[in-house]
Write a structure and sequence with these properties.
With about 325 residues, the chain is an alpha/beta fold. About 35% of the residues lie in helices and about 20% in strands. Strand 5, helix 7 and strand 6 form a beta-alpha-beta unit.
Length: about 325
């Protein structure tokens, strides 16, 4: 019997009714999804004054990691006017997507703040498992810090941001940067982050099937893929950040989620634990929002509000 669960926002429900949804995620379906074309980033850049640079850096094991760097064509110039940086980590359940997935979100911050946006092509599960994904993302963050002057970036204003799986990886990277002492992270923005491999919260059980685009069963598939042969006792907190015993010393944090999605409870719990550790977090639970609603339907009223609220938070952070 399906558990009672919060209703969808009426406008989102109407939009979602016209969308064909996956009933499950299997290796065969994943292979088909990976054949789909990447996000057409060129159309997003066409009306912007942006310089694009492609970089390849070595992972810890030497595997090439591509980065895309998007910079304003006319930056302020000079060390005093160095730009903020948004380090973007894409979503896709740890198993799909690429560095251009959801890239429209951080490009809005390039427009508004003159931010340099750097997006990383981390390796995906199940081909890569364990800490490989978060280590790849951390290598990208180290590269940004090391090349801040060359990129025109203010090293004191690097924001790590990501959506869904990317939000979980952003949380893991921020923990790793804290524990390793480098580089400095000014803030983390976690958009409906995938934080807890245990997949056992009330919101997860409420969404064992639809509505929406990511269910408990799909979540279990993604986590099985990334954990590989690890037992529960072996899962590092950098991979499943909800396991972190110590959330002290984290940078200011923004977390948002929907009331009608799998990750609601693990996301609200993460914010609560940051507060309990004496940290600063801003949490928004959008009533009637399903997983990824604002990326899928940015034209909906609730989506526009969610995206505007994030931007206003960044404005306070970057210009305060």
């Amino acid at each position: 019997m399906t558990m009672a669960r919060p209703a969808l926002d009426p406008e989102l429900a109407e939009l979602l009714a016209d969308m064909p949804l996956m009933a499950q995620l299997t290796p065969e379906i994943l292979a088909q999804l990976r054949q789909l074309p990447s996000t057409p980033v060129e159309s997003l850049l066409a009306h912007r004054q942006v310089e694009r640079r492609e970089v390849v850096l070595p992972a810890k094991d030497g595997t090439p990691i591509p980065l895309s760097v998007f910079s304003p064509t006319n930056p302020g110039g000079g060390p005093a006017n160095a730009a903020p940086c948004v380090y973007w980590i894409h979503g896709g359940g740890m198993v799909m997507g690429d560095r251009f997935s959801q890239i429209d979100i951080p490009l809005e911050w390039l427009d508004r703040f003159g931010a340099v946006v750097v997006s990383v092509e981390y390796r995906r599960a199940p081909e890569a498992t364990g800490t490989t994904l978060v280590d790849d993302c951390h290598q990208g963050l180290l590269w940004i810090a090391e090349h801040a002057r060359e990129l025109g970036i203010d090293p004191a204003r690097i924001v790590v941001a990501g959506a869904s799986a990317g939000g979980g990886l952003a949380a893991g990277v921020t923990l790793l940067a804290r524990d390793s002492g480098t580089p400095a992270v000014a803030a983390q923005m976690l958009i409906c982050p995938m934080l807890d491999h245990r997949n056992s919260s009330t919101s997860s059980r409420q969404h064992s099937d639809g509505p929406g685009v990511w269910t408990r069963d799909m979540n279990a598939f993604g986590w099985r893929a990334v954990l590989g042969d690890l037992t529960d006792d072996e899962v590092p907190a950098y991979v499943s950040p909800a396991l972190a015993d110590d959330l002290t010393g984290l940078p200011t944090t923004y977390i948002d989620t929907g009331s009608a999605e799998v990750f609601r409870d693990e996301d609200t719990d993460y914010a609560t634990r940051i507060w309990a550790a004496g940290g600063q977090a801003e949490l928004h639970v959008w009533a009637g929002g399903f997983h990824g609603f604002d990326a899928l339907y940015p034209q909906a009223r609730i989506s526009a509000t969610a995206r505007r609220t994030r931007t206003e938070w960044l404005a306070r952070l970057l210009t305060g």
